[in-house]
Design brief:
Layout (H helix, E strand, L loop, with lengths): L9 H4 L17 E4 L5 H12 L3 E6 L2 H13 L4 E5 L5 H15 L4 E4 L15 H28 L3 E6 L2 H4 L6 H21 L4 E8 L8 H4 L2 H11 L7 H12 L10 E4 L8
Parallel strand pairs: 1-2, 1-4, 2-3, 4-5, 5-6, 6-7
Helix pairs in contact: 2-10, 4-5, 5-7
Bound molecules: NADP nicotinamide-adenine-dinucleotide phosphate (NAP).
Length: 275
Amino acid sequence: MWRGAPSRFRAVFGGSPMSSGGSPRSLEGKVALVTAGTDGIGLAVAEALGVAGAQVFLSSRKQQNVERAVTHLRGRGLQVSGVTCHVGRAEDRERMVQAALDTFGAIDILVSNAAVNPHLGPTLEADEGTWDKVFQVNVTAAAMLVRLVVPHMEKRGGGAIVLMSSIAGYRPMAGLGPYSVSKSALLGLVAALSPELLPRGIRINGVAPGLIRTRFSQALWKDEAMREQALGALGAQRLGTPPEVAQAVLFLVAPQGSLVAGQTLLVAGGALARL
Ligand SMILES: NC(=O)c1ccc[n+]([C@@H]2O[C@H](COP(=O)([O-])OP(=O)(O)OC[C@H]3O[C@@H](n4cnc5c(N)ncnc54)[C@H](OP(=O)(O)O)[C@@H]3O)[C@@H](O)[C@H]2O)c1
């Protein structure tokens, strides 16, 4: 920490910027909450944060998925627990945060990763109920989750948050109008919250993956012709993997990312994008 820096920045930017930045256990003593943490990108994030030393509390809607993910990660020697939570439901979010506190005693890191995409087709064919659902789960729930965890992070002297956006938030994808617009809203949410959270000791950033090999996106990559078309439209060199996205999240929540705040990092295999 440089001399004279306000104390409120200490938790955000770390005692000395590179003091623990290179440590493979850079999250030792931290507790991380990961939504949609039972498959794909979320599961890879839970694993990466656990390997970095964090105690990880993960969630998703289905009990069997939570049990499977927790068993899998514990089998890798990680400190992991979890609970069911549909992020679109306020009572589920509250129950999840309380369960994380009851289990690990604190929350230092939040990765808000859940999203839905119920509509495939022309944007104007999406009805009001579809728009409401997409925004409720993908945007409002993320904001409400941040609201819930911030007081607990403040008790710890600070924290770090990542919201999972998408390359579709930067450049809308054909047939995915409401989803793309909701992911653009997350770019705005990160930018709006960052100046409010920094003085409270909390860094918030976003990650915008390109096309990543998961169940969620399989319609875009399973068929080779479809995959080439999707990658070509994005200008990406290749399909990404969940661990590649997880490493970007790890960087942003760890001391390595101590000077990065209010940004959304594109992890998209060479695709260029800006809003
Ligand atoms: N894959 C890509 O190419 C790509 C690209 C850009 C951005 N993303 C973003 O990355 C995030 C994760 O996607 P993914 O590709 O990793 O998906 P995935 O592999 O299909 O996993 C989806 C996860 O979300 C959970 N989930 C679904 N709806 C939920 C809800 N309402 N509340 C809580 N959990 C829920 C699922 O578990 P349950 O079924 O048990 O709920 C599962 O754990 C999403 O925000 C997505 O928009 C993905």
